Amino acid sequence: MHSRASLGLKVAAIGGLLFLHLPILLIFIYAFTTEDKSYQWPPPGLTLKWFEVTWNRPDVWEAFGLSLRVASISTVIAIVLGTLCAAAVARSRFFGRETISLLVILPIALPGIITGISLRSAFSIADIPFSTWTIILGHATFCIVVVYNNAVARFRRTSSSLIEASMDLGATYWQTLRFVIMPNIATALLAGGMLAFALSFDEVIVTTFTAGQQQTLPIWMLEELVRPRQRPVTNVVAMVVVIVTFLPILGAYYLTRGTETVAGQGK
Question: Is the whole model's pTM more than 0.85, yes or no?
């Protein structure tokens, strides 16, 4: 039996949701306003003009392209390294295993400004010029953690008897990887990759310390707010960022839903 929620609990839940999502709704509304210099409420009028203006701004496309490249490459690096780390930690027994696991997840636990300063100092000491690759390396530090957490949990729920049975039946290591291991962990890797992409695409703090003179889309938005010229353009771009980051998160949710059990678990 399921007891009905009390009125107070319902009001608290609705209030929490409104607190979280009303600011996002305001961004969407101001993307259509006719006022271009201030956030006047209610908007004096509605227009689609700012979408055309945004479409024709080359600086927006340049920042969007950089964010897309950085997020894509960071995600690929995170999937490869995160999966290898997860396999080593979940499937092996060795001295210092838990310490290594802690070190892998540490970057996402540290404040972003600490990660950013440490990376900037390391690049300066190594005399590495700031470029797209320095941004990618910075983003990969926390993207790896997202993939690792998803993969290690799935590895631990996948029975080792499946792998042993496959090898006993004459399968090679690569056949076992392809037909036994990958089907069990594929959704976890894809979900982790989607979350990593979303985190990388809208990251600001670490990017500020590793980008040099380059501008990803979130950095572009930040500078536009500091030096406002056409405020609704910033809101249009913010809508794009919301959509681009929301879709991978939604996909990751549906991919991992109902995966509490995996093949061979508990056997």
Answer: no
